[in-house]
Design a protein that fits this description.
With 211 residues, the protein is mainly α. It is 65% helix and 0% strand. The protein folds into two domains: 29 residues; 139 residues, no CATH class.
């Protein structure tokens, strides 16, 4: 039979890799003590740690000293978090390069097939923005749909990976999804613009004479 004298807010008793679980704190006798918490001023942490280790070695020469700083627990989670962020960053870079390369090849093939049509439009007075809009029109909905599916897939996979590593995490923010969506549209638009610009630099007569 125990008397409850207070209730604390939810906190992480171990590490961020484990889910929060109910914890009951009871007062016990000194012979059952397992850990000692020592509070020190920020400027004297190293000195207090060294002094504590020296006293422990003197009192218990046959038992190894297993002291550690409290922030080392959070540091482990921080290191893992930075590693995961680095992996995601390079995955994003590789995905952008692959998407830009694929889009450039696809647009190049389409523009090559329509080179004479584009040359004729230039001869009759079509402006560059009209030709760009003509080429982009065929890919607009494809880019929009693929960007939406890609962002949702990235959100689902990122959330799954973070849930597997961290039982407690902030999840994937809406701003990250929106930035990713805008980045995909920007990369695709830039790729199409570069390819169309290369076509527009070609003389119309050369395109019309080509087989």
């Amino acid at each position: 039979m125990c008397t409850v004298i207070g209730v604390l807010k939810d906190f992480t008793p171990n590490t961020l890799f484990e889910p929060m679980s109910p914890v009951a704190m009871v007062q016990t006798s000194p012979e059952h003590y397992a850990r000692i918490l020592i509070r020190a001023k920020p400027g004297s942490l190293s000195d207090v740690f060294a002094e504590t280790k020296a006293v422990w070695t003197k009192l218990y020469p046959l038992k190894p000293f297993r002291g550690y700083y409290q922030d080392e627990i959070a540091a482990e989670a921080s290191n893992v978090n930075e590693s995961v962020a680095t992996i995601f960053f390079w995955f994003a870079i590789i995905s952008i390069i692959m998407a830009a390369t694929s889009m450039f090849a696809l647009v190049s093939l389409n523009v090559l097939k329509r080179s004479k049509e584009i040359a004729i439009r230039k001869v009759v007075g079509a402006e560059d923005r009209h030709i760009f809009r003509l080429v982009l029109k065929g890919y607009f909905w494809i880019i929009l749909l693929s960007a939406g599916i890609g962002c949702y897939g990235g959100y689902a996979l990122s959330k799954l990976l973070m849930d597997l590593i961290f039982r407690i995490n902030a999840g994937v923010s809406t701003s990250s999804i929106l930035i990713s969506f805008a980045a995909i549209l920007l990369v695709c638009g830039t790729t199409i613009g570069v390819r169309v610009w290369l076509v527009l630099k070609t003389k119309a007569m050369d395109a019309l004479k080509a087989d």
